[in-house]
C-alpha cells in the first residue's frame, strides 16, 4: 500500500506532462477541421461541423512538393550523420592514442558553436560551390552541425560495450572495418535510434538555413512552404494547422519506429555473464 502511495506523484507528473504535450497537439488537429470563421469565433472548442476544406487546399497547393523536399533533405542528412558519426566514434571509444582525448574535447567544443553565426561563410561557400538555391545546399550544414552531438552519443554508448566482443573478433582475424560493421554497429541500435530521432526532428523543423540557402519555391522545404498560408492582410490559421498536422506525421512515425528499435536494441545488446 505504501509503495502505491509513493507512486502517486509519478502518476500526477505523467498526467501533467501528457496534458502539457497532448493538449496543443489536440487543439492543432481540432482547428484543422474548422473554417476560418468558426476558428475566429471559437478557437478552443471542438469543430461543430468537421470540414476537410483545409486538407483539400493542401492537395491543390505545393504542400506535398515542399513535403518531398523536406523528406529528401532529412533522410539524406540523418543517414549521413549516423554513418559518419558512428565511424568517427569507433576510434575515440575503442582505440588508445595520444590525440584521443583532445579530439573528443574538440567535438564537444563543436556543440557549443552557435550555428547561426556561421550563416554568412556557409552562404558564401554554397554560392562558390554552385549549390545555392538547390536542396543539395542544405544537407552539408545540417550534417556538419549534427555530427558533434551524434559522436558524443555514439562514443559514450560504445564505451559501455564489453571488451570481450572485440577481443574475440580479433582472435578470429577480424579487422577493424569488419569488427565495427559486423559486430559493434548492430549493437548500437539504441544509439542509432536516439541520433536518428534527435537529428530528424532538428532538420525537419529547421528554417533559417533553408531560408538563406534557397530562394525559389521549387527548392523550399516544408517550414518555408508554410508561408504560403500567410496573406498580405490575413492568415489562414486552420490551413496552417492542417499543414502542421500532416507535417508532424513523419516525426511521430519516426519516433514510434525508433522507440521500438530502442527496446529491441537493448534486448539484443544484453550480454549474459
Automatic annotation (TrEMBL):
Is-annotated flag, keyword Cytoplasm?
no
What family is reported? Belongs to the binding-protein-dependent transport system permease family.
What protein does this entry describe? Carbohydrate ABC transporter permease
Enumerate the CDD domains for this protein: TM_PBP2
Coiled-coil annotation: which residues? none
Q: Which organism is it from?
A: Halobacillus salinarum
The ABC transmembrane type-1 domain, residue ranges: 67-258
Q: Cross-referenced InterPro entries, in alphabetical order? A: MetI-like, MetI-like_sf
Amino acid at each position: 500500500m505504501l509503495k502505491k502511495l509513493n507512486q502517486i506523484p509519478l502518476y500526477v507528473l505523467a498526467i501533467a506532462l501528457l496534458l502539457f504535450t497532448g493538449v496543443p497537439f489536440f487543439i492543432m488537429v481540432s482547428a484543422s477541421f474548422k473554417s476560418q470563421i468558426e476558428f475566429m469565433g471559437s478557437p478552443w472548442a471542438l469543430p461543430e461541423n468537421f470540414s476537410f476544406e483545409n486538407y483539400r487546399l493542401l492537395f491543390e497547393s505545393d504542400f506535398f512538393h515542399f513535403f518531398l523536399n523536406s523528406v529528401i533533405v532529412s533522410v539524406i542528412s540523418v543517414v549521413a550523420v549516423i554513418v559518419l558519426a558512428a565511424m568517427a566514434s569507433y576510434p575515440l571509444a575503442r582505440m588508445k592514442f595520444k590525440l584521443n582525448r583532445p579530439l573528443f574535447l574538440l567535438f564537444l567544443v563543436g556543440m557549443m558553436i552557435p550555428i547561426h553565426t556561421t550563416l554568412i561563410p556557409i552562404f558564401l561557400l554554397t554560392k562558390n560551390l554552385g549549390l545555392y538555391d538547390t536542396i543539395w545546399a542544405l544537407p552539408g550544414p545540417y550534417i556538419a552541425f549534427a555530427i558533434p552531438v551524434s559522436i558524443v552519443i555514439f562514443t559514450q554508448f560504445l564505451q559501455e560495450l564489453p571488451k570481450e566482443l572485440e577481443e574475440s573478433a580479433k582472435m578470429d582475424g577480424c579487422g577493424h572495418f569488419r569488427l565495427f560493421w559486423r559486430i559493434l554497429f548492430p549493437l548500437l541500435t539504441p544509439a542509432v535510434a536516439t541520433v536518428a530521432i534527435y537529428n530528424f526532428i532538428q532538420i525537419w523543423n529547421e528554417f533559417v538555413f533553408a531560408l538563406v540557402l534557397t530562394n525559389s519555391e521549387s527548392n523550399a522545404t516544408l517550414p518555408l512552404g508554410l508561408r504560403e498560408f500567410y496573406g498580405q492582410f490575413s492568415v489562414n490559421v486552420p490551413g496552417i494547422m492542417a499543414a502542421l498536422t500532416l507535417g508532424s506525421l513523419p516525426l511521430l512515425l519516426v519516433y514510434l519506429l525508433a522507440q521500438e528499435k530502442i527496446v529491441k536494441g537493448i534486448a539484443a545488446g544484453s550480454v549474459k555473464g
